[in-house]
């Protein structure tokens, strides 16, 4: 179906085998803009790219349908660390930014992305990025960066 849809637009289209695509994404992730994949392959690719980005905790996701959309961090609920204050909240924040962009709120999207970038550039890192900042500390730092 993707091939038929792509034919109606001026876009490059290629069919890839998931294991070979993983290698291509690790070696040169910027060569891809959009990847359409079934759920299992999408999960595999998301985890591979999270490693390229540095942590699963940084990654946002969107599931877009014809009349509904769902935005969530790639890592899901992370029940193994629930209540410990060590979860990286950035994936959730960037998912919210994606939702705002989907709703046409470009200025708010950019504000969140800039605030997250400012915090990470300031060397405030949660444990999954090698730091010691708690979930609450990261969240507070991003809120302050938004002000």
Q: State the order of secondary-structure elements, H for helix, E for strand.
A: HHHEEHHH
Number of domains: 2
- Share of residues in strands: 5-15%
Sketch the major β-sheet. 2 strands, antiparallel
Strand tally is: 2
Radius of gyration equals 17 Å
Mean pLDDT: 91
The rough form would be described as globular
Helix content: 40-55%
Oligomer type? single chain
Strands side by side in the biggest sheet: 1-2
How many DSSP helices?
6
Kindly, what is the distance between the CA atoms of the first and last residues, rounded to a whole number of angstroms?
45 Å
State the low-pLDDT regions, or none.
Answer: none
Structural class: mainly alpha
Describe the structure.
By secondary structure, the protein is mainly alpha-helical. It contains 6 helices and 2 strands; from the N terminus they run H-H-H-E-E-H-H-H. Helix 5 crosses helix 6. The longest helix is centred in the last third of the chain and has 16 residues. The chain is globular. The chain starts with a helix and ends with a helix.
Question: Concise description?
Answer:
This protein is mainly alpha-helical and 147 residues long.
Blueprint of the fold:
Blueprint: H1 2-7, H2 18-27, H3 39-53, E1 60-64, E2 69-73, H4 90-102, H5 106-121, H6 135-146
Antiparallel strand pairs: 1-2
Helix pairs in contact: 2-3, 4-5, 5-6
